[in-house]
Design brief:
By secondary structure, the chain is α+β, with helices and mostly antiparallel strands. It has a six-stranded antiparallel barrel. The protein has a six-stranded antiparallel barrel with strand order 7-8-9-12-11-10. Strands 19, 20, 21, 22, 25 and 26 form a six-stranded antiparallel beta sheet that branches. A hairpin with a 2-residue loop joins strand 8 and strand 9 (about 130-135).
Length: about 575
């Protein structure tokens, strides 16, 4: 396992990010053997899984065998604690077979080898008809998907298509074109949010067998948790039912048969402690897809500011607050996010969407207890407007903000997209991202982690571009030492992102291209009009078997240059 001292390890104190996640000393980013790749791990570590196994044919069942029910009855002395499952059927549970091919962030022009994975899902009714709901990481980077019903009447595999997916909340909807798959199939109904100590049933196809597996547990905790697939802090429910590799995407039912969650990750260093995606998050995804279409959903808005607790009475006094005042201190506002231009450092935020904020930064969540204020923001759709009540210079003010998707200088986990890259004279340039950091250990990883932790977007800088490697050639001799170095300027001009950097290089009429690194080193190369540069580009691509000198998202830069 690769463990890298990246986020939360630079300062010794706790830090709160704009997305609301608390990064503590000891947090790790690591490469997991499970197919979600690298996951954010807190102590104890968290990891969602799909099962990477061969596609063996199975004959699942659609109900619990009588022998199993009898064994469960015997386990309960008086029978009162046993979930009454005799009347429940599980024919809406499906097994998912995915062929996956993940991108290679080390060599972004190619992909890793093809692998097979399995997961679980459940049939639900949507505004677009019957669909299979599953976890996004079960089908991320998929090239081919099949589903198999648990009913013995139709055990064949059916080709499926990804109808909608949103990796931030780790949810996806699958469509099955074949009508025969849906015959006599009753969808599961989404129920209410489960409460503490409610009994739940986790259904799916974990490792250790081919048949449908059902485990029983209770709800133990309801709060915001980092979703390992996306690194985003969203509402989650903790249960003590076993959730293992292959369970991902499988339904979690109440004892009355309602769908109350989707299994998606588990604590690795704890016994039978897993997390499920609760109905509010599922409904947010489904309503957003219904509102904007399968490709127009914008996800969950972020807060866009850093804040500090006001539990210290001297701090409250310094802010000019009275004894009964409550809220959190705004310490920094991040460009391009929801509250940018509305809040300023020094404001005291007391209410969000009508909910009072306690001095520790939590709000009441009805009968479920308390959650971080960030969770309140995430319950609304993007582009919604909410009111914030603040105290600014001892005056209470109400401001209205339009909620926006989170904007990061260094993007968090990304899926189902090829990495952006550009090769010039053998120098490979890429935007710095969490995916790159996790997959490319090196001596500069701490500096990259600092950018991930503290870097903020601005009007003049929306991406950090690094020279990820140098494909050796006589034209770039000695530049290998600048691997993983950030490029800050081209011929003295700064740039907003990689696309603008490519435009500066290819639009240059100078005989030389002068690249300035963040450490004030210089990389000098011949200009694009020079025959030496043109010959080197062609020679290097052929030598290293690189199909194109840039990713598809940068192809239009070449076209503009030609025009």
């Amino acid at each position: 396992t690769d463990q890298r001292r990246v986020r939360g390890l630079l300062p010794s104190e706790m830090r709160r990010t704009p997305s609301g996640s608390i990064m503590e000393p000891g947090d790790r980013l690591r490469r997991s053997n499970s197919s979600e790749g690298v996951a954010l791990k807190r102590k104890p570590k968290i990891g969602g899984r799909r099962n990477r196994v061969g596609q063996k044919k199975s004959e699942p069942v659609d109900e619990i065998p009588e022998e199993m029910l009898e064994q469960m009855r015997m386990m309960c002395e008086d029978g009162e604690d046993m979930v009454e499952m005799e009347g429940l059927t599980f024919d809406s549970v499906v097994k998912i077979f995915a062929t996956i091919q993940e991108p290679d962030y080390g060599n972004p022009w190619q992909t890793h080898s093809v692998e097979c994975a399995t997961g679980s899902g459940v049939v639900i009714q949507t505004n677009a008809g019957l669909k299979v709901l599953t976890a996004a990481h079960v089908v991320s980077d998929q090239t081919f998907v099949q589903v198999q019903r648990t009913g013995v009447q139709n055990p064949d595999k059916h080709v499926a298509e990804v109808y909608a997916v949103w990796h931030e909340c780790d949810l996806a909807l699958l469509d099955v074109p074949q009508d025969g798959f849906w015959k006599d199939l009753t969808p599961s109904e989404i129920g209410q949010m489960p409460s503490h100590r409610d009994l739940v049933l986790v259904a799916g196809f974990p490792v250790g067998g081919e048949e449908l597996s059902i485990t029983e547990g209770v709800v133990s905790r309801i709060e915001g948790q980092p979703y390992s697939h996306s690194q985003r802090m969203l509402l989650a429910v903790t249960v003590d039912a076993a959730i293992n590799s292959g369970n991902s995407g499988g339904p979690v039912f109440s004892d009355t048969g309602e769908l109350v969650g989707i299994a998606f990750q588990a604590l690795e260093q704890a016994e039978n402690t897993g997390h499920i995606i609760p109905p509010p998050v599922i409904q947010h995804f489904l309503e957003g897809v219904a509102l904007r279409g399968p490709t127009g959903y914008k996800g969950f808005p972020g807060t866009g500011f850093y804040w500090q607790q006001l539990t210290n009475p001297w701090l409250r006094q310094e802010r000019g607050l009275n004894v009964d005042a409550h809220g959190v201190l705004v310490t920094k506002v991040v460009y391009g996010n929801s509250v940018f231009g509305k809040l300023v450092a020094g404001d005291v935020l007391t209410h969000v969407a009508g909910k009072a904020i306690a001095n520790n930064g939590t709000v009441s969540f009805d009968r479920y207890g308390r959650v971080d204020l960030d969770i309140v923001f995430s319950m609304f759709q993007c582009d919604s407007q909410i009111e914030l009540q603040i105290v600014r210079e001892a005056v209470t003010v109400t401001v209205t903000v339009t909620l926006l998707p989170e904007l990061h200088l260094v993007p968090l986990a990304q899926h189902d997209r090829a990495p952006s890259y550009y090769i010039y004279c053998g120098c490979v340039f890429q935007p710095l991202s969490l995916d790159y950091i996790q997959r490319n250990p090196g001596p500069d990883i701490i500096e990259m982690g600092h950018a991930l932790e503290h870097g903020e977007p601005s009007e003049k800088k929306l991406q950090l571009v690094i020279m990820s490697q140098c494909l050796s050639d006589q034209i770039n001799i000695s530049y290998e030492e600048f691997q993983n170095q950030q490029i800050s300027a081209v011929n003295g001009s700064s740039f907003v992102n990689l696309k603008e950097m490519v435009s500066l290089i290819e639009g240059s009429s100078d005989g030389l291209i002068k690249l300035r690194t963040n450490g004030d080193d210089l990389v000098i190369l011949p200009g694009p009009s020079k025959a030496e540069a043109q010959q080197a580009n062609e020679r290097i691509l052929q030598r290293y078997k690189v199909v194109a000198d840039r990713s598809l998202d940068l192809q239009d830069v070449r076209q503009q240059a030609v025009v």
